[in-house]
């Protein structure tokens, strides 16, 4: 006797289709991982289209300001180490009285710089935020009337203050989040 299989419910069919689309999207993201400059060029292009939309439409300044604040937050997370040396310094001060930081002497342990927000997640979050901001510019509910020069000046002040604080933190705990100017060693050198 042949038993008939129950038909798939509509919810299960939609769920299967959604998971298939998610796997395809994730495969596309995985394939784009090694192409760092091209990914960022696409993101900068999308940002330029967003700014062009803001400029031509003469509105949605609050959306642009919100996007600017979010991108600044992402950039700060990208610059910061995963394990904050200021927190470690507080813990170490109680134990041995020395301040935290990267090794400066031969006998200190080497600790590589690990970002709090990796480059790929930074790119992905920034691109997604710009896309969402672009979509928001097509809905009049997000076009709140504001005096945009105040937002620009406030954002510039916020950027200057937070970057000054971040640079002071980098100097105090002696870390550089970029590999430019660092010594590079060959595999064959002894």
Automatic annotation (TrEMBL):
GO CC annotations, alphabetized: endoplasmic reticulum; Golgi membrane
Domain of life: Eukaryota
UniProt keyword terms in alphabetical order: Membrane, Transmembrane, Transmembrane helix
Record localization: Membrane
InterPro entries reported for this sequence: Rer1 (IPR004932)
An example Gene Ontology biological process: retrograde vesicle-mediated transport, Golgi to endoplasmic reticulum
Pfam families to which the protein is assigned, alphabetical: Rer1
Residues of the signal peptide: none
Topology of this chain in the membrane: Multi-pass membrane protein
Transmembrane segments: 38-56, 62-79, 122-141, 147-164
Chain's role: Involved in the retrieval of endoplasmic reticulum membrane proteins from the early Golgi compartment.
Family assignment from sequence similarity: Belongs to the RER1 family.
Protein name: Protein RER1
Source organism per UniProt: Hyaloscypha hepaticicola
């Amino acid at each position: 006797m042949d038993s008939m299989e129950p038909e798939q419910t509509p919810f299960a069919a939609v769920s299967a289709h959604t998971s298939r689309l998610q796997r395809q999207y994730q495969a596309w993201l995985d394939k784009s991982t090694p192409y760092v400059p091209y990914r960022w060029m696409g993101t900068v292009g999308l940002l330029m289209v967003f700014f062009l939309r803001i400029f031509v439409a003469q509105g949605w300044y609050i959306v642009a300001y919100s996007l600017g604040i979010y991108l600044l937050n992402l950039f700060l997370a990208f610059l910061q180490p995963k394990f904050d040396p200021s927190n470690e310094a507080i813990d170490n001060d109680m134990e041995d009285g020395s301040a935290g930081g990267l090794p400066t002497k031969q006998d200190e342990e080497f600790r590589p710089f690990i970002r709090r927000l990796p480059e790929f997640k930074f790119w992905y979050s920034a691109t997604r935020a710009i896309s969402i901001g672009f979509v928001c510019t097509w809905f009049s509910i997000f076009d709140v009337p504001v005096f945009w020069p105040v937002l620009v000046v406030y954002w510039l002040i916020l950027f200057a203050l937070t970057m000054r604080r971040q640079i002071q933190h980098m100097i105090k705990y002696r870390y550089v989040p970029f590999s430019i100017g660092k010594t590079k060693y060959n595999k064959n050198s002894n």
